[in-house]
Design a protein that fits this description.
The complex is a heterodimer.
Chain A: E1 3-8, H1 9-19, E2 24-26, H2 34-45, E3 52-54, H3 59-71, E4 76-80, H4 82-87, H5 89-97, E5 103-108, H6 122-125, E6 133-136, H7 140-154, E7 163-168, E8 176-181, H8 184-190, E9 207-208, H9 214-246, E10 253-256, E11 263-267, H10 271-284, E12 289-294, E13 296-298, H11 302-309, E14 314-319, H12 330-339, E15 347-352, H13 362-377, E16 385-386
Parallel strand pairs in A: 2-3, 2-4, 4-5, 5-7, 6-7, 11-12, 11-14, 14-15, 15-16
Antiparallel strand pairs in A: 1-8, 6-13, 10-12
Helix pairs in contact in A: 1-2, 1-7, 3-5, 7-9, 10-13
Chain B: H1 29-41, E1 45-49, H2 53-56, E2 70-72, H3 78-94, E3 104-110, H4 111-116, H5 119-128, E4 133-138, E5 164-165, E6 168-169, H6 178-183, E7 189-193, H7 198-210, E8 215-220, H8 224-227, H9 234-243, E9 250-253, E10 256-259, H10 270-273, H11 284-311
Parallel strand pairs in B: 1-2, 1-3, 3-4, 4-8, 7-8
Antiparallel strand pairs in B: 5-6, 7-9, 9-10
Helix pairs in contact in B: 1-7, 3-5
The chains are: A alpha/beta, B alpha/beta.
The structure holds thiamine diphosphate (TPP), iron/sulfur cluster (SF4) and magnesium ion.
The site of thiamine diphosphate has 18 residues of chain B, from α2, β3 and α4.
Chain lengths: 391, 314
């Protein structure tokens, strides 16, 4: 029987890694990811998880060791955040380009300078084009469920891509929640062993990591791109299968009280739960407001997003990252670009907030909606605004 | 074969794990070294290759010269990648998911990827004690990108980023003593080698593979393109580097130093520098300064070997 326990999300992710019988973990500590890797180290030290834990000397080496272990056919996990993710940056492209199904949790945090250990999405936004599957989770339960699903999706022979699970630093990573844990046996039945056909072995030598000349490179990149785009089918399939087995369902794009809504908020990650509370309050006051939450960031599920937003008049996108010197928040920019050629579309307001760990409360969301609606009525909508910034 | 020192060409493996047809320059001493090492690898070896000449000449898709399982990921991370492979082999065998077998993991890289940009990754892997062998092919510069200096470039050598000029002698720093840094990690096996001494090189590779824990071999690799030397003289330049004391061949086995090739009397430095375009600009006093340093280093090494011999009671 599944059991419900009060537990910190980071510890829950680590316990899930154990349930998934991961073979190799290579990791380097950084706040706010530390609890995940410390707890995995404990599990290995206590003999509860039979894995090789490689306490590497940097994140660059963490991801590089993950390349090796995954290429050799081992189920591989790591976790990082912020500067650590940046230090891994060039290796991330190799993981995906070589189609290695590494799973990584990112406890999202701001990037220096100035130094900030607190949460936002600027670390992962710089990884947008690294070719990984990327999801944002909203709560600890989802972090657990996504971890289980991620291995099954990533290691599927039709996918073979690395998988990044973004969970907001502190706001999610350090919060204690009631979480339902499936039985290990159920997870085993759901998640078969990683059986990598092309693994490095003297029994049938393969070469991995050749270089490509101009006549080949475009096709190689295209193949990678198509694999990522097509992975959405498998992602949805696995999430549906998960729902049948475990009773909790997930979709690339989720909607909350969007029926007939004139104004829609758009969020990613843990702030979605606060936004739901705000939507409840506004609905009670008779305001026609709903919420769209993006779970799947890459591949970008624009069709589903369009379906969810096309009926609204105003779409207010909250980005927890500033595209410095750019045209709008990173998520808002992509949505604007996708909507541009559509006949029927909402006006888009880009709000940047919650960066460097600054909270956004339910009343902030209400302010944002009021302000966003006013902005949308202006003839020349400001391309973006930074919520609450003191000039 | 048991011992390559018993010279007989028919007992040297005719297998060529690194197939001919690669794109190395004529007379490349680095690829000669690699080919000899590959012969010593045997079938049960996984090769991790850092970015650099040896990776580029062997792996233009859709062709690849390796008959062994081979992986290239990046420039500075071969040791970390090898760590992951070694860990995977260990855990998968323990969990009975793959047939248990002794698989050698060998990481290879040039001096740039080893002595400079990859030194952290290598140091970490040695410190953690992974069971793998690292082989550095030292041609004393970043050759793949066009002969830029590295910290293994010798004093006085002219490279594209340490060019000799009116106000420059060329490389103005002394070659980093990488084997000493490796030895300071207290790993069980460190050696220097050179393909001009092929059996010594292959023996050392076999020893390194048989070592439990990390092993490191630093291979002197003549690069006619980068050194502006004649391609038909690469083997001779390797010998001259040893005979002049510029690159002594030795082993450090569990802390015990031993000369592999004794040179009773060092040849004059110019026997080695002559004919190398990278040293052409050096004046007599420059060469004398370098020679003095070479002798000094050589003496220090001899002392360590002698001390080891005494400690071993020989
Ligand atoms: C992070 C990074 N920086 C720089 C490079 C460019 N680069 C590729 S190979 C190379 C030099 C290789 O030198 P070395 O390791 O000595 O090998 P060699 O080509 O001399 O055999 C450089 C600088 C790179 N690939 N990656
Ligand atoms: S540049 Fe030097 S090391 Fe590189 S392939 Fe040519 S000769 Fe060999
Ligand atoms: Mg070099």
């Amino acid at each position: 029987m599944a059991k419900r326990v009060g537990i910190e999300s980071s510890i829950a992710v680590a316990d899930t890694v154990k349930m998934c019988d991961v073979d190799v973990v290579a990791a380097y500590p950084i706040t706010p990811q530390t609890h995940i890797v410390e707890h995995i180290a404990d599990l290995v030290a206590n003999g509860e998880l039979d894995a090789e834990y490689i306490p590497v000397e940097s994140e660059h080496s963490a991801m590089s060791a993950c390349l090796g272990s995954s290429a050799a056919g081992a189920r591989t996990f790591t976790a990082t955040a912020s500067q650590g993710l940046e230090l891994m940056h060039e290796v991330l492209y190799v993981a995906s380009g070589m189609r290695l199904p590494i799973v990584m949790a990112v406890a999202n945090r701001a990037v220096s300078a100035p130094l900030s250990i607190w949460g936002d999405h600027s670390d992962v936004m710089s990884c947008r084009d690294t070719g990984w599957i990327q999801v944002f989770v909203e709560n600890g339960q989802e972090a657990v469920d996504m971890t289980i699903c991620s291995f099954k999706i990533a290691e599927d022979p039709s996918v073979l891509l690395p998988f990044m699970i973004n969970l907001d630093g502190f706001h999610l990573s350090h919060v204690i929640e009631p979480i339902i844990f499936p039985e290990e046996e159920e997870v085993k039945a759901f998640l078969p062993n990683f059986d990598y056909k092309y693994r490095l072995t003297p029994d049938h030598p393969v070469a991995m990591g050749d270089f490509a000349t101009p006549p080949l490179f475009t096709e190689a990149r295209w193949a990678h791109h198509m694999a990522l785009v097509n992975s959405q089918k498998k992602i949805v399939e696995v999430w549906n299968e998960f729902e049948q087995k475990f009773g909790r369902g997930y979709k690339p794009v989720e909607t909350y009280k969007t029926e007939g809504a004139e104004t829609l908020l758009f969020t990613m990650g843990s702030f979605s739960e606060t936004a739901m509370t705000a939507v409840d309050q506004m609905r009670e006051q008779g305001k026609n407001v709903g919420l769209v939450r993006l779970r799947l960031w890459r591949p970008f599920p624009f069709e589903e997003i369009y379906e969810a937003v096309k009926g609204a008049k105003t779409l207010i996108v909250l980005d927890r990252a500033l595209s410095t010197g750019g045209p709008a928040g990173p998520v808002a920019s992509e949505i604007k670009a996708g909507l541009y050629n559509k006949e029927v579309k909402p006006k888009v307001v880009s709000i940047i907030g919650g960066i460097g760990g600054r909270d956004i409360h339910d009343y902030d969301f209400i302010n944002i909606v009021e302000h966003g609606e006013a902005l949308a009525k202006t003839s020349d909508i400001a391309p973006y605004e930074i919520y609450g910034v003191r000039g | 074969m048991e011992n390559y020192n018993v010279f007989a060409s028919r007992v040297v493996s005719k297998n060529e794990p690194l197939a001919p047809g690669h794109r190395a320059c004529t007379g490349c001493g680095e690829v000669l070294a690699l080919r000899l090492c590959a012969k010593a690898f045997g079938k049960n070896t996984i090769v991790v290759n850092a970015t650099g000449c040896m990776e580029i000449i062997a792996s233009q898709a859709p062709y690849n010269s390796w008959r062994l399982p081979w992986i290239h990921t990046l420039f500075e991370n071969a040791s970390a990648t090898a760590s992951g492979i070694e860990a995977a082999i260990k855990v998968l065998a323990r969990k009975n998911r793959v047939p248990e077998s002794e698989i050698n993991v060998v990481a290879i890289g040039g001096d740039g990827s080893t002595v400079d940009i990859g030194i952290q990754s290598l140091s970490g892997a040695l410190e953690r004690g992974h069971n793998f062998t690292y082989i550095c092919f030292d041609n004393e510069a970043y050759m793949n990108t066009g002969i830029q200096r590295s910290s293994a470039t010798p004093f006085g050598a002219s490279t594209t980023t340490s060019p000799a000029g009116k106000k420059s002698i060329g490389q103005s720093t002394w070659k980093k003593d990488m084997p000493a840094i490796m030895a300071a990690h207290n790993i069980p096996y460190v050696a220097t080698a050179c393909p001009s001494y092929p059996f010594d090189l292959m023996n050392k590779v076999e020893k390194a593979l048989a070592t439990k824990g990390p092993a490191y071999i630093h291979v002197f690799s003549v690069c006619p393109t980068g050194w502006r030397s004649a391609g038909n003289l690469s083997v001779r330049y390797g010998r001259l580097a040893v005979e002049t004391g510029v690159f002594p061949l030795y082993e450090i086995e569990n802390g015990v130093y031993k000369m592999s090739v004794e040179v009773p009397e060092l040849k004059p430095l110019t026997a080695y520098t002559k004919g190398q375009g990278r040293f052409k600009h050096l004046k007599e006093d420059n060469l004398a300064k370098i020679e003095a340093r070479v002798h000094e280093e050589y003496e220090k090494l001899l002392e360590k070997c002698n001390l080891s011999a005494v400690e071993e009671g020989k």
